[in-house]
Design brief:
- This protein has 277 residues and is an alpha/beta fold.
- The chain has twelve helices and seven strands.
Amino acid sequence: MSEEGKYKEDYLRLKGIIEEMGSLLVAYSGGVDSSLLIKVAYDSLGENAAAVTATSPTYPEYEIDEAKSIASSIGIRHILIESNELDIADFAKNDSKRCYHCKRELFDKLKTIAGDLHIRHIACGTTVDDLSDYRPGMEAAKELGVRSPLVEAGLTKSMVREISRMLGLPTWEKPSFACLSSRFPYGTEITEDKLKQVGMCETFLRQLGFKQFRVRYHGEIARMELDTEGLRNLLEHPSLRMEITKRLKEFGFTYVTLDLEGYRTGSMNEPLLKSIY
């Protein structure tokens, strides 16, 4: 079977799972995974599908704007709600279950919206790859009966990208993004000022043309994670390194460091996983 034929089968399997739901409300961030989910939900259920995006200090404005644009191009009903996770004391304290506290509140809100709209199911964009990482938000999803159709269809992140490309979604090559709270080591209190500080740094790197990166917060230190292309670019251009260093110091950091391991998802989980295993 050709690669295209294989991904078409994967798409049809996902579509069948969603069609059986009858109606679906999607927790939609505008990222690669949830964008595919709302596309297939709308293809499968039409007006019986809807997407909800929570605006928050933990998400940059440009991410919200992209989410609105993608949802509009798909045609799905798109609902924006306000959410400030910093109002959740356990979230702001940034303990190891930070994502649980966030998702628990979000899914509670979605259950209310689903009830008002007479929608039977709620879904999130968890993939098979996410099951191998530390994801306490999945515990909240399980407790509240939120489904993960991408997992049910056996889809990995690379498969999601290939199906998205097949369907013509612009997100198929979008860099991965997680909320800005993931830039802080567990135990470091998260504040709106700190979120803005990290957000300004990442917006600056984005404006310079970097694609896949993170700026991790360590008090006075900004630790940059760049993908292979970004690492090469930075190491080959000393003037660029100096420009970034100068700007990130202007944003409030005393030291600016480059992580030689490069970009990787969940790097803030590494100390936690090391203690477990």
